[in-house]
Every structure is written in C-alpha cells, then in structure tokens.
Amino acid sequence: MKVPEQYRETFDFYVKKGFAARVGYGQRPALLVIDMIRAFTDLRSPLASNLDTQMDAIQRLLALTRTRDVPTIFSTVAYDRELQEAGLWVRKIPSNSWLVEGSEWVQLDERLDRQPREMLLVKNTPRASSAPTWRRAW
Q1: Residue 133 per-residue DSSP state
Q2: Contact (Cβ atoms closer than 8 angstroms) between residue 75 and residue 34
Q3: Its pTM surpasses 0.85
Q4: Rounded Cα gap, residues 138 and 124, in angstroms
Q5: Which of 55, 75, 120, 121 is 20 to 30 Å from the Cα of 135, by its Cα?
Q6: Which are the contacts of 38, defined by CB distance < 8 A and separation ≥ 6?
Q7: 72-77 sheet: strands from edge to edge
Q8: Distance of CA 100 to the CA centre of its chain
Q9: CB distance 55 to 77 below 8 Å
C-alpha cells in the first residue's frame, strides 16, 4: 500500500500492532442516504437549505435500487430532549437544538418514501462514519 512519507511511521506502527489489515469489498452494493431529514430540507428550519436538486438525484437512485433489491440505509441525527448528547455542537450551532428525538425535524424528508425493508440509523452526531455514535437502527 502506498503511504505518504509523513504517515509512514504511524502506518508501520499500526501494521506492527495488527491494525492495518484489509478486508476488501463486499459482494454487492448498498445505498446510503445520509441525513436527508426535515431539519435540513424544510426551509422553515434554520438548518435547512434548498436541496431539491440533491433530492431529485436521490429519488432517481432510490427508484433504481428498489427495483434491484439493493439494500438501502437512511440516517438521521437526533439528540436527547435535554440536549446532553449534543455536547458542544449545540453551543457551536445553536439551531442544532431543533434536532430533538421525536420531533418532526429529525424525520426523513417524506419525498424519500422510506419502505419497510429499508433501515434507518439514528445517530447523535452529524457524522455517519463513526459507528460508536449510532444510537439505534430500525
């Protein structure tokens, strides 16, 4: 594996400790739709922007993947009602206080038309790549 020289020592350390193994790719694709929730798509929310172009593209992907039985996973971000899980995010971006579990703002945009077999991951951070931040899936 090609590693930039400034990271060589760190990479070698991880290799020595057994943390650099590759597992390869899976056997089939999946579609991840990250945080296309009302807080970000409904212009009544201070967190929102016009994502109609992005939504159109996602809808086209969903139409295709649903006919081919491709697993689809949606995500949302939701904080506890006391905002303890929000940590510094709510201080840095006060309108993150709208992202309270159970509120309309953490619901998927209805244009996605989530199907019963499609998973929803609930996170308590804006990142989708950190599994420890996932609170639950259903």
Answers
A1: G
A2: yes
A3: no
A4: 15
A5: 55
A6: 45, 48, 104, 105, 106, 107, 108, 109
A7: 31-33, 72-77, 119-123, 134-137
A8: 16
A9: no
Average pLDDT of 83-105?
91
Q: Which residues fall within 8 angstroms of residue 101, CB to CB, at 6 or more apart? A: 78, 79, 80, 81, 122
Task: State which amino acid sits at residue 45.
Answer: S
Classify 6 in phi/psi space as left (phi over 0), alpha (psi -120 to 50) or beta: alpha
- And the tokens for 88? 């510094």
The whole-angstrom distance between residue 71's C-alpha and the CA centroid of its chain comes to 15
Reported as a single tens digit per residue, the pLDDT across 7-59 is 899 989 989 999 888 888 888 899 999 999 999 999 999 999 999 999 999 99
Length of the chain: 138
